[in-house]
């Protein structure tokens, strides 16, 4: 038992040490954007056409290294600033995956190989674009915006802010980064512990026997990604530790699904958007991630 705990401790610490620099970088960039890039700037450059705006939203995620924990509030703010819903959702789904910090961390985690990082981006873009297009047909723009607005009026009084000066923005950035670091950090510790425990105490053979077929392996890894809820800046390090057990499709499904839907961002989405909308969107994501991973 002591031996197992020591082994678990080693795995846990290595996961944390590998992931921390990426999380620190992520929260800082996210905080800078929070303070210096206004939603008006984004709304101004957003194309009006449905498909162009989805493409734009998908690409915009590349510039915002927000982890999936930080991206839901940004998305809600975009919807409030009249960014088309489908574009905001495309942004929310790809943002945590195709940004430079996450691509680089995936590259490092898989032994400095580009294959996994590129496949991950490909599957993320495929899923986000199809989900956003489906959403643009199923949900009218205004009903979600009205919901977000109504929620805002419910908390009214907080929105009156004067434009802060440059120094205030700098201190705001640091405050924001520290806050986000601690909120993201506790999820990393939690995910790292579960992952280390699973790798120590779960017999590899059990996981392997459950994931015997390609379909089962993909579904198990998607479920694991949801339960472990690791930040996208760090999840590649955890995914790569499963590398011996599962094939590429299952690990890809873990990397893409976990960054789009996990316990912590489900809670945030339920807070930001209507339930029916959240569950419809998650259903679409499950179908597209599964299909995409299965075809790889």
TrEMBL record:
It holds the Pfam family ArsP_1. Keywords: Cell membrane, Membrane, Transmembrane, Transmembrane helix. It is found in: Cell membrane. It comes from the Bacteria. It is a multi-pass membrane protein. The keyword Transmembrane applies. The keyword Transmembrane helix applies. GO terms for cellular component: plasma membrane. InterPro entries: DUF318, UPF0718. The chain crosses the membrane at residues 12-33, 54-75, 87-110, 117-139, 181-202, 214-230, 236-257, 277-295. Belongs to the UPF0718 family. This is Permease family protein. It comes from Heyndrickxia coagulans DSM 1 = ATCC 7050. The lineage of its organism: Bacteria, Bacillati, Bacillota, Bacilli, Bacillales.
